Amino acid sequence: MSEPAAIGVRSTRQRSAIADVLREQSGFHSAQEYFDLLRNRGQRIGLTTVYRTLQALVASGDVDMLVGADGEARYRGCGQALGHHHHLVCRQCGRTVEIAATEVEQWASSVAVAHGFTSVDHTVELVGTCRNCAGDTST
Predict the structure, then answer these.
(1) Angle subtended by helix axes 13-24 and 47-60, to nearest 10
(2) What are the pLDDT digits (tens) for 51-104?
């Protein structure tokens, strides 16, 4: 993940702390969970700063955001090796697999063209139950 200054977010001590905690954590966490982690580490930071910084990082592509079944946004540092990608998420444990989906990209592009749209963005989240949560131990 880039440093905040590299993505158009003014670099501050608080924003650097948020970037650090994102790099250290695996999986998706709510802004409140990141806020609690930072406060437990002695960081003097406001919840609003955490939310704003996470949104800026999402906009820059440095952070992935998923909205859970409860409607709460959850964030994690993005694995950008795939470039634009989508997610397959276990609804029980939250395990997330990043996937490239060429067919989705082609479909989105063709739908946009057919309706006269340009500069179209999209997000695809596939939600299911992973093998471990389903109790399937076969490989």
Answers:
(1) 70
(2) 999 998 888 778 888 887 788 999 988 765 556 778 888 888 878 888 878 888
Rounded to 5°, angle at Cα 74 from 80 and 102: 40
For 10-19, write each residue's pLDDT tens digit. Answer: 667 888 899 8
Cβ partners under 8 Å of residue 136, min gap 6: none
Specify the DSSP element, H or E, that contains 88: strand 86-90
The domain segmentation of the chain, as residue ranges, is: 1-78, 80-139
| CATH hierarchy code of domain 1-78 | 1.10.10.10
Closest alpha carbon to 126 in 93, 84, 98: 98
